[in-house]
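Q: Start with the shorter request: fold the first protein.
A: Done. Sequence, then structure:
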Amino acid sequence: MASFPFELVSPERLVVSEEADEVTVPGIEGEFTVLAGHAPFITVLRPGIVTARSGSNARRYYVRGGFAEVNPTGLTILADLALPVEELNDARFATEIAAAEHAISLAHDDESRAKAQQQLAWIKDLQALVVPHHVHASH
């Protein structure tokens, strides 16, 4: 399988810069997978998991949002926040949820409030998938 350059960048740092065989990205309109030679485009990201594969190795990164640009030379993701999935835990999600709730409180119209509420829902859904929880039965 042909590889291509992949970079994941957050405001704090270059998270990853490597050759990848395929990268699955959480776009605002749904997940998409980039392979070498993918048609160029730019899209907005939703909170989710970016999965980069090279051979049999797969690395996963949480992104809060941002943009992805696919161009003839590769894929660049400019994320609002990006970190390895291994760093996700309830404390990290509490911070993410608080930030989303703050964005809802600052929303100045119905459209921006709806977008902020959607972000919060995505983060909570992602937390349910990523962080194991103990289920307590109630009698």
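Q: Next, the second protein, separately.
A: Sequence, then structure:
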Amino acid sequence: MDRAINKIIFVDDDKIQHMINKKNMLRIKPDLELIFFQNPFSALEWLETNDFDLLLLDINMPEMSGWEFLDVLEEKKIQIPVKMLSSSMDPDDIAKSNAYQMVEGFLVKPLQIEVIEELLNCQK
């Protein structure tokens, strides 16, 4: 991955994760634009008309799973780079992600500072 990351979309039902990620990411890159959605349906609607550099997508959400979210993105022909967010590195989830061309990997929640730095420095 060799592109600038300036605008990141989070789709995760956990408000606390949003607060932690926002604080840590802006500490590393203050000019980063971060957009957070707790509701996957609102996120899908927003994604139809807006651009961004990376989607961080929670696998386990009550309204719609991350996998269902990816299926809708494919149906709507929205091609975007995605990193899946999970509280564990389940081998079944990793295997399942291989079915989705847009999934570029997994990040374990909560995101550690080192992981955020690596993610944000990928444009170097």
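Q: Describe the second briefly.
A: The chain has five helices and five strands. The mean pLDDT is 91.
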